[in-house]
Specification:
The chain is of the alpha+beta class. It folds into two domains: 91 residues, Immunoglobulin-like; 175 residues, Glucose Permease (Domain IIA), CATH 2.70.70.10. A hairpin with a 4-residue loop joins strand 17 and strand 18. The chain is globular and about 65 Å long. It is built from three helices and 23 strands. The strands form five sheets. Strands 14, 16, 17, 18, 20, 22 and 23 form a seven-stranded antiparallel beta sheet that branches. A five-stranded antiparallel beta sheet has the order 1-2-4-8-7, with no helix packed on it. 17% of the residues lie in helices and 41% in strands. The longest helix has 24 residues.
Length: 307
């Protein structure tokens, strides 16, 4: 009997180990590249035609004996992470990046210390950001001050700055816990009370106070607390320089440093901070740029429908 239990425990342990290994292998869905550039055995697979301002693009570096690799474009360096023999990296385009074709450089770093650089074109097109007027009567004038916003953004970007970590998300990638439609879009240029203009850094969907807000992917809580504009806020690190933020909550259930799973409840919907009524606000940062949450959700939704 004891021996039976012992065997079962070991079988369970091995199954868990296999699950962990396969999770790593599937952190990026199996999709086909749009273009491929090569130099002898070195390949750069590009999974987009062009990238909109404020959006992400997936790139893969493939060669034998690769130790590391990176992509350099717009004066920024984007790291890569290893999955299944290839090195993947997300390029994130700043919302205000000028629209034109750039020369991107993929750097292959080999186990013997040698390097190779391969150039490829990367076109940036319009983010198509809309204009919105938002009126909040009786708003605290403090949260319409540019310096208050600048301080808050500096705090967030100071936290969301680790590019070296491998992905923390699993094969489920990034998923929204509700099928409610997003309403107010990412990137909208918002004019508050006809006086203060600012960019909408995420997506909103209508929700009632008390509804759950859940993490879109596995990760680690980097901030859980109150900010002047975002109100009760949680910032989650997903590894690989990718972070998600959840704003205006009535209550927060998690604490800084806590490891969380995809779909874990972070708090409840509210209307704290710069908000006119209860709603859910979700935003994402990739490599120090605000990026569209929808890109990550779509990447994993496509892979599900493709089987
Ligand atoms: Zn919002």
């Amino acid at each position: 009997m004891r021996r039976d239990v012992f065997v079962r425990v070991w079988v369970g342990f091995v199954l868990i180990l296999l699950a962990v290994v396969s999770v790593q292998a599937d952190a990026i869905p199996n999709i086909d590249p749009v273009s491929t550039y090569d130099d002898e055995s070195a390949l750069v697979d590009v999974f987009f035609d062009a990238i909109k301002q404020g959006r992400i693009g997936l790139v893969r570096l493939i060669d034998g004996n690769l130790e590391d690799g990176s992509i350099v474009v717009f004066g920024a360096t984007y790291p890569t992470f290893e999955i299944d023999g290839g090195r993947y990296g997300f390029v994130s385009v700043p919302m205000d990046q000028a629209m034109r074709t750039y020369e991107a450089q993929a750097t292959f770093i080999y186990e013997d210390g040698s390097e190779k650089t391969l150039s490829f074109p990367l076109e940036v097109i319009s983010g198509g950001f809309i204009q919105q007027s938002v009126d909040i009567p009786g708003i605290d004038e403090e949260i319409l001050k540019p310096e208050v916003e600048a301080t808050e953004l500096a705090q967030i970007f100071g936290i969301a700055s680790d590019l070296a970590e491998p992905p923390l998300w699993d094969e489920n990638g990034f998923q929204l816990w509700t099928n409610r439609e997003f309403t107010s879009p990412f990137g909208a240029v918002r004019l508050f009370n006809s006086t203060y203009e600012t960019l909408h850094t995420g997506w909103d969907y209508p929700a009632s106070t008390g509804e759950s807000m859940q993490s879109i992917a596995t990760g680690r809580v980097m901030f859980a607390g109150h900010l002047p504009i975002r109100g009760n806020y949680v910032l989650v690190d997903h590894g690989a320089g990718i972070y998600s933020g959840y704003a205006h909550m009535s209550v927060v259930f998690v604490t800084q440093g806590q490891e969380i799973y995809a779909g874990q409840r972070l708090g409840r919907v509210g209307s704290t901070g710069r908000s006119s009524s209860a709603h859910a606000h979700i935003e994402m940062i990739a490599h120090g740029n605000w990026v569209d949450v929808a890109d990550f959700l779509l990447l994993y939704r496509q892979s599900q429908s493709a089987g």
